[in-house]
Each structure stands twice: as structure tokens, then as C-alpha cells.
Amino acid sequence: MRFSSPLFFGCPAEFLGGSALLKVFCPNEMTGSLLDIDLNALAAQGIKALIIDLDNTLMGWDAEQITSQIKKWVQMVKAKGFRICIASNGLSNRVKRIAAELDVPAVPKAIKPRKRPFRLALRLLNTRSDQTAVIGDQVFTDILGGNRMNCYTILINPISRKELRSTRFMRRVERRILRRLHKKGLVQDKSYRQRLGIYKRD
Ligand SMILES: [Mg+2]
After folding, report:
1. CA of 171 to the centre of ligand 1 (A)
2. Given its phi and psi angles, is residue 110 left (phi above 0), alpha (psi -120 to 50 degrees) or beta?
3. What distance in angstroms lies between residue 74's CA and the mean position of ligand 1's atoms?
4. At the N or C end, where does the chain have fewer CB atoms within 10 A?
5. Ligand 1 center to residue 44 CA distance, Å?
6. How many angstroms is it from 114 CA to the middle of ligand 1?
7. How far is it, in rounded angstroms, from Cα 152 to Cα 155?
8. Distances 177 to 39, 102, 173, 174 between C-alpha atoms, Å
């Protein structure tokens, strides 16, 4: 089965309910933001590098600049010895500009959840998938892609409520998948409840 096929993405959540299939959407961890990630715990389990999504993970979807808080976080992560690569479905120029500002490599126009951009990122990081965490705000791109590569996956809440229309649509399916994962006890109750807030629309 090709996970990247549009047909797959059009599937109602009922068809995605099988346990084995469901697990491919399950993050290893769910936290509020990048700042909440326990880096010491990651290092203790042998994680050496982070593949990080750009929009709504490192910066707001409509933002032009990275906040100083995130810049400091990136410096701190690097100082702890982690390597970082940005993997974004966004356009080259913008992704490259931000990556240059943070002094990290990047894979733009990634078309996550395809495997290719993750393979490229692993090559740039010079790490194996079991030494690498994938961090992002979307189940169907970041988490699905990271899980397919057997990386450690961390789902964070999006920075901004502004998103592409297609992303807003996918959030509805995402919510149903997470509800099923929660029912099966595959995601932590506290993290799940914290995440539910992002699906409430004004
Ligand atoms: Mg994102």
C-alpha cells in the first residue's frame, strides 16, 4: 500500500482502524511544543539527531521570522551535541533562508510522508534512523513519515492556528486517528487531552 497516494488520504478514518495500520500513525511521544521535549531522555535512549518540521513546528505557518526563543532552543540543542536537519514540504527559498539563519541543513519541498526526504535528511545528518527523532505538528506528514522510516517520532502542537485549507481538512481525520490511539491506550492521556485543544475552532 502506498501511504502517499491521494486515495489513501481521502479514506475515512473507519478504514484506517486496523491496529497494525493505526500504529503507523502513532507518535512515540506527544508534547506541547519543542521546548517541552526532554532532550536528556532522548540522549539516554541513543538519539543523536533531530529531523524537525518547519511550519507550525519551528515557526508559525504564516510567520516570516523564527522567534528568539526558538533560536535559543536550537542553539541549546546543538550545544548538547544533537545534530539538526529541517525537513519541510515548504518552498525552497524560504526553507533554505531559515535553515541558513539557524546554521542547520535542510530538505525543502520534502513531500512528507514520502521516505525520500527522510533518507536525504539522514544522509545529511550522518545518522541511522534508530538514532534519529522526527519532530513535527502533523500526523499525516511528520509522524507517518518518521514511523515509516523507523525513526523515533514526536508530535507537537502546532504553533499557529493558521494553516493551509488542506491541512485543516486533514486535522479532522487526524483527530479521529488520535482518538482511536487514545482508546487503545497507545498515547498518553495527558498529552492527548492537551492536544484536543488544537482541534477546537473559534
Ligand atoms: Mg508542520
Report:
1. 12
2. alpha
3. 17
4. C
5. 27
6. 15
7. 10
8. 27, 33, 6, 5
Residue with cell 533560536: 71
Per the document, the length of the chain is 202
The burial class, CB within 10 Å (0-12 / 13-18 / 19+), for 139 is buried
Grid coordinates given for 192: 492527548
Which pTM was predicted? Answer: 0.89
Query: Which residues of the chain, if any, have pLDDT below 50?
Result: 1-15
Ligand 1 centroid distance, CA of 17 (Å)? 24
Which residues, other chains included, contact 138 with Cβ-Cβ below 8 Å and sequence gap of 6+?
53, 56, 158, 167, 170, 174
Q: What residue ranges define each of the domains in the chain, with the CATH number in brackets? A: 20-191 (3.40.50.1000)
pLDDT tens for each residue of 48-93: 999 999 999 999 987 889 999 999 999 999 999 999 999 999 888 9
